[in-house]
Amino acid sequence: MTDNKTINTAIDKQRFTFPKSERLRHKGLVDPLFERGKKCFEYPVRVMYKTWTEEELQGSFKIEVPAGIAPLQVMITIPKRKIRHAVDRVLLRRRVREAWRLNRGALRSAIEDSGRYRLMGVGIIYMADEVLPMSRIEHKVKKIINRLIAEVTAE
After folding, report:
1. Distance between CA atoms of 86 and 35, rounded to whole angstroms?
2. How would you classify the pairing of strands 119-126 and 72-77?
3. CA-CA distance, 58 to 146, in Å (whole number)?
4. Model confidence over 27-85: pLDDT tens digits?
5. Torsion over CA of 78, 99, 97 and 10, rounded to 10 degrees?
6. Which DSSP category does 23 fall into?
7. CATH says 17-154 is which class?
8. Domain regions of the chain by residue span
9. Helix crossing, 134-154 with 86-103: angle to 10°?
10. pLDDT in tens, 12-34
């Protein structure tokens, strides 16, 4: 009986949800991400990322930092120019989001453990012209996450 409680407790500590607080949606964060953010590319995914310290984050908003901003925020984009059909864009957005959701835990831990950064914003852009399988997308997202972990821990 205690084994089930231990397993449930371990599962509860590592939640795989994708709450609104982890979605990059504030204009004060999105604009600097694409203007001054760093890039990395792993076909079919291009990633823009930027880290903010507490002071930089305060300066990004007019009044104060909104409550409930997670230390890792992501924005996923599937360009209409590359993928014409809305059905395919939705499918790809779901695949990229699922790959991110399942593999982001190590990056989130690295940001929280670094202590230097308050927030990391990540913009994921799908660059392929065709719909790729989930396994390939997930493999590339894992590579990107490992690069971002190396970037956070190296600085």
Report:
1. 27
2. parallel
3. 28
4. 889 999 999 999 999 999 999 999 998 888 888 887 888 888 889 999 999 999 999 99
5. -170
6. B
7. alpha beta
8. 17-154
9. 50
10. 456 778 888 899 988 889 999 99
- What is the C-alpha radius of gyration for the chain, rounded to an integer number of angstroms? 17
Length of the chain: 155
Cα gap 53→43, rounded to integer Å: 30
Q: What is the mean pLDDT of the chain?
A: 88
E-strand ranges in 30-141 read 38-42, 45-52, 72-77, 119-126
Partners of 52 in beta bridges: 119
Other CB atoms within 10 A of residue 120 CB: 24
Rounded CA-CA distance 59/66 in Å is: 12
The whole-number pLDDT of residue 35 equals 95
Q: Whole-model pTM?
A: 0.85
Give mean pLDDT, residues 91-100.
96
For residue 11, give every residue at least 6 positions away whose Cβ sits within 8 Å of its Cβ, in sequence order, or none: none
Of 72, 76, 56, 85, residue with least CA distance to 127: 76
**Among the listed residues 4, 6, 14, 8, the one whose alpha carbon sits nearest the alpha carbon of residue 104:** 14
Peptide bond into 44 cis (omega under 30): yes
